[in-house]
Specification:
The protein is an alpha+beta fold. It is 39% helix and 10% strand. Strand 5 and strand 6 form a beta hairpin. The chain is globular. The chain starts with a helix and ends in a 7-residue tail after the last helix. The protein binds a DNA duplex through helix 3, helix 4, helix 7, helix 9 and helix 10.
Length: 363
DNA sequence: GAGGCGTGGCG
DNA sequence: TCGCCAAGCCT
């Protein structure tokens, strides 16, 4: 099958089977002249970096409701953006999202640039996202390569070179395959195919519009592709978190993490450093101030990108007014916790402390 | 260019 | 329980 024929086959499939997504203009409406909002395409693409559609949907709704345009987002305090992003992960994306909105508002008069080259200059927009915005929002011819495209094309062309070494070849193949007409729909079609049919495990080849032309299907190699370089083993780090609870109000003591690095700029429960050599017997010595800290029964387990974490949780019930001031820390009332910029690992730590209670009275 | 950087769902 | 994986970017 030639490139033009393969592309047309997939576009016909897409016309019938495109997923309906909150940020997407359906192929039908697109043909009727509806154009995508570059702001919504950009926002969705950043949220979708290494993140599933299911996880993104509610956050996308929340963001577009709070900030309907890029200039609204540019006008928002960064702290509000971090609070809204809390739980979605990869928090540098939220910091760069805000920086990017500021730049578009200030340097591009609130209009997203429409070329890959200009888009690449913006914070948080790399090769994939620049190509995706250029083609989906502006109908530019661009080779969009994400994890789906890598998998689909590795199989279609039976590319046996392991990733990431195969990336340049895949990019060239995608550029050849992408049609001049409807390049944006084609990119979304390949990604939809990868998400719904040509899945990592147990692909549904019988339903695939490209089955007969697929080289890996012909040779029975579909499930062995793409090949990938072996991954490094994750170490386990240990630490302690200290949940101070105000006896009067139930407020808990929180503080801000440093602006960059792991969970940069997010809110946390005061705690120790996390290390493989952490001495659990001496954990309480890492408390932020002296108090009647009691070790909670349950530890918190959490996995980050490159290590596992086990946290011992300590709780102390005390009078906030009599607590030594902790630099930059604040007391947050129970009703306010939902709105804090707390990453998931910190919500787990709070839950472990608050569910069990003080261990003294029946709280 | 290799490593840092979250989270939730799945088998 | 655990490893794998999901629309990558930055340094």
């Amino acid at each position: 099958m030639c490139s033009a024929s393969a592309a047309q086959t997939l576009l016909t499939w897409y016309d019938r089977h495109a997923r309906r997504l909150p940020w997407r203009v359906s192929p039908r409406n697109r043909k009727l002249g509806e154009v995508p909002d570059p702001y919504r395409i950009w926002l969705s693409e950043v949220m979708l970096q290494q993140t599933t559609v299911a996880a993104v949907k509610d956050y996308f709704e929340k963001f577009t409701l709070a900030w309907p345009s890029v200039e609204d987002l540019a006008a928002a305090p960064e702290e509000d953006v971090m609070k809204a992003w809390a739980g979605l992960g990869y928090y540098s994306r939220a910091r760069n999202l805000k920086k990017c909105a500021d730049a578009v508002a200030a340097e591009f008069q609130g209009r997203f640039p429409d070329t890959e080259e200009d888009l690449l200059t913006l914070p948080g927009i790399g090769p994939y996202t620049a190509a995706a915005i250029a083609t989906i929002a502006f109908d530019r011819h661009a080779a969009v390569v994400d994890g789906n495209v890598e998998r689909v094309l590795s199989r279609f062309f039976q590319i046996e070179t392991p990733l990431p070494d195969a990336k340049p070849v895949i990019r060239a193949r995608m550029a050849d395959l992408t049609p001049q007409i409807r390049p944006g729909d084609f990119a979304q079609a390949v990604m939809d195919l990868g998400a719904t049919i040509c899945t990592p495990r147990r692909p549904a080849c019988a339903l695939c519009p490209w089955m007969t032309a697929c080289q890996a299907h012909s040779s029975g190699m579909v499930e062995t592709l793409p090949r990938k370089a072996p991954k490094k083993e994750k170490p386990t780090r240990y630490g302690a978190a200290f949940v101070a609870v105000d006896k009067e109000t139930g407020a808990v003591l929180l503080r801000r993490r440093p602006p960059s690095g792991l969970l940069g700029g997010m809110t946390e429960v005061p705690g120790s450093d996390w290390s493989e050599a952490f001495d659990r017997a001496d954990a309480v010595s890492g408390a932020p101030f002296p108090a009647a800290w009691t070790r909670q029964t349950a530890e918190v387990r959490h996995t980050f990108t490159h290590f596992h974490l086990r946290l011992d949780i300590f709780r102390a019930d005390l009078e906030a007014s009599g607590t030594p001031g902790l630099k930059g820390a604040w007391w947050s009332l129970p009703d306010m916790l939902d709105g804090e910029a707390l990453p998931t690992v910190m919500r787990k730590a709070l839950a472990a402390a608050l569910e069990q209670g003080s261990g003294k009275s029946g709280s």
